[in-house]
């Protein structure tokens, strides 16, 4: 039980760091501070580009 507690605490600590989350997002075309620019393409005809803010959240 003690090993599981340490493992879950490490995972939660990793997930609270915005730079770790940004590094695993797909379709990233640009990063500036916590603003991530993503580009999605569908059927080679339609594309959408948007900026999203990554912020820490309360994880229990």
Descriptive notes:
The protein has a 3-stranded antiparallel beta sheet with strand order 1-2-3, with no helix packed on it. The model has no long low-confidence stretch (mean pLDDT 74). The chain is elongated, with a radius of gyration of 16 Å. It is 33% helix and 35% strand. The chain has one domain. By secondary structure, the protein is an alpha+beta fold. It starts with a helix and ends in a 7-residue tail after the last strand.
Features of the shown structure:
single chain; 60 residues; alpha+beta; three-stranded antiparallel β-sheet; 2 helices
Distance between the termini: 18 Å
The ordered H/E elements are HHEEE
Instruction: Compute the average pLDDT.
Output: 74
Provide the low-confidence segments as ranges. Answer: none
- Spatial strand sequence of the major β-sheet: 1-2-3
What percent strand? 35-45%
From the alpha-carbon coordinates, what is the Rg to the nearest angstrom? 16 Å
Q: What is the number of helices?
A: 2
Q: How many beta-strand runs?
A: 3
Structural class assignment: alpha+beta
**What count of structural domains?**
1
Helical percentage: 25-40%
Shape: elongated
Task: Please describe the biggest sheet, giving its number of strands, its sense, and whether it closes into a barrel.
Answer: 3 strands, antiparallel
């Amino acid at each position: 039980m003690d090993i599981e507690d340490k493992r879950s605490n490490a995972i939660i600590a990793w997930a609270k760091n915005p730079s770790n989350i940004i590094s695993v997002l797909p379709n990233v075309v640009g990063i500036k501070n916590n603003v991530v620019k993503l580009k999605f393409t569908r059927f080679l005809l339609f594309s959408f580009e948007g900026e999203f803010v990554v912020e820490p959240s309360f994880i229990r």
